[in-house]
Amino acid sequence: RKEVEQDPGPFNVPEGATVAFNCTYSNSASQSFFWYRQDCRKEPKLLMSVYSSGNEDGRFTAQLNRASQYISLLIRDSKLSDSATYLCVVEGGTALIFGKGTTLSVSS
Amino acid sequence: DARVTQTPRHKVTEMGQEVTMRCQPILGHNTVFWYRQTMMQGLELLAYFRNRAPLDDSGMPKDRFSAEMPDATLATLKIQPSEPRDSAVYFCASGLVLGTHTQYFGPGTRLTVL
Description:
By secondary structure, chain A is mostly beta strands. Chain A has strands at residues 4-6, 11-14, 19-25, 33-38, 44-50, 55-57, 60-65, 70-75, 84-91, 96-98, 102-107. Chain A contains no helices and 11 strands.
């Protein structure tokens, strides 16, 4: 099993749609989780941390399920500017482990 | 607005040449990471430092890659000799707390080895 696994997509959705991404991780001892966003030919940037209780930042909601070892990201009311690759990131002891990313394309 | 800087932004070289990539972490950050990103492999961790000391470079091909931090404001990644399979985007990232804190990425060096 890969350390961090994501569906690469692409997810093609119209503006205004709600879209959800899932990610699974293999290390049950991991304590910190994040979603990063990477635009085409740019560097990854932190989108949000993922807390056990779940957290929301505007149109974005992140959830953590420790028992099943998966993390989710929900985007409501998608905008054209949300088009990017979303990287699931899991703390792996002394370093962060990045998934390969899920590509989202929002069209008008 | 503090940022991680990397030079050069683009590098095209021929197989067998030495390549040196430089990174200036955000002032005050005590951890520095080097990653390589390709379409096939995604983001791979090559090496990381805490307080300028190398903590792990197990992700690096030892025979040709080397990473150093000559001082707190400069990290370098060298490839000698370079090979076409080294073509990738190399990112440097810095952070404050090893492992659990967020990392701030530089813009990357896009390397093409012919």
